[in-house]
Structure prediction request, 226 residues.
Amino acid sequence: QKEVEQDPGPLSVPEGAIVSLNCTYSNSAFQYFMWYRQYSRKGPELLMYTYSSGNKEDGRFTAQVDKSSKYISLFIRDSQPSDSATYLCAMSASSASKIIFGSGTRLSIRP
Amino acid sequence: KAGVTQTPRYLIKTRGQQVTLSCSPISGHRSVSWYQQTPGQGLQFLFEYFSETQRNKGNFPGRFSGRQFSNSRSEMNVSTLELGDSALYLCASSVGLAGGPNEQFFGPGTRLTVL
Prediction:
């Protein structure tokens, strides 16, 4: 079993919809949680960074961490075609530990 | 502040050759991590260097090696290239201090093709 599980998709939604992306994990020691966006043939770009449980909002993006369920989510409101990309979740136990990435979810926003 | 830079951006090599990739981290970042990304395997961790020492290591064979210089720049070397080494090689930098933030910022990658 992988330490981090992420549905690879593809996920296709109409423009303006709310998108929910999720990851589950098995290592209860994880405390740092990140979401990255990767466009085709580019390096991943950090979107959201959270420590421990709770919610964090940045513009149209909201990250949620539920450590009791070992489940993290990224919500995208008012989705735009420019949000079409692969989204990777990532997490680590400490700032000195290696970061474990999910396999990525391919998202397509239809105009 | 300049981002993470990687050189070269594209490389074509043949089986059996060796290759060296370079990564310059964001100014002030002391940690550099290397990843291999392929369509089938996703993003796989190779190793991390912090203050010129390898701090974490993934599950890659010894053909994959790296080093970090005193200015935090890092190089990754792959010897005896195999067809399966064709991939996008990404490096990411972070502040890296224990107890501090560990967001990683990625470079654009080096696309390696092995023929």
